[in-house]
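Sorry, explain these tokens?

___
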Amino acid sequence: MTGGAKRFALEAHDLALAYAGASPVIEGFDLRVLPGEIVAVLGPSGIGKSSLLRALAGLDRPRRGTILVDGSPIDGVHPRIALAFQDPSLLPWLTAERNVAFGLGFRRQPALPAAERRTRVEAALRAVGLAHASALYPSALSGGMAQRVALARCLTRRPAVLLLDEPFGALDEVTRADMQRLLLRVVADSGAATVLVTHDIDEALLVADSVVLLGGVPARTIDAWAIAAPQPRADADVTGLRSQVVAALRRARPATRPGASPARERVDV
């Protein structure tokens, strides 16, 4: 943005997270995401990436810190935040169209006239390339199509913030690449500030505008990279940066995570 201070759609300041009755999981986490920006969060397995996303979504209350959407603090579930998981979680008795519409009935969503709901659902299905499949039930959808429906369900809400928890992790390589390209287009069109939690370094480097690395016990940001290569990107565009991220991830692996044997810890590489 020009002509003034940047307006962040999502901000997190000094976040601390902990499981009930347990030691802190994340300490002192800060994040700022602009509209239309994709930030990928990487880190060793079990470091607390999904817990962080749940806190940003307002599903879990942080132990300390502030989360802002469009400059205002959130207190619980927020109508302008949409969250998608690796499991599409579609209701099997509803068609694709009605699964997408179901997102408009989530908690704290504003009431909409029937015509506006229909317009939003149709637009969301077109955005993910599934206008032709609106009448299909989940049992008739491929894995990639199911994820597209889940993404459309988020888009019907016209979110300012889109949170994605390894949404393409269960897909085959070709479908995953298709979904990554779709994500880039959807974020560009919607302007949603997007946080992508992924275990896949290549996915983070090919899709995101910046990458944040969590590490340590409790976890905190130990490194971050802005990615200057323009879209569309190829592996060759980020080869040098990939080597840096892999090395940093290995250093970030906790050697003595409480309650876990070091031998069972692994780095997502």
User: Anything to note?
Assistant: The chain has two domains: 6-80+160-167+179-263, 86-158. The CA atoms of residues 10 and 33 lie 5 Å apart. Strands lie at 10-18, 24-33, 38-42, 64-69, 72-73, 81-84, 161-165, 193-197, 210-215, 220-226.
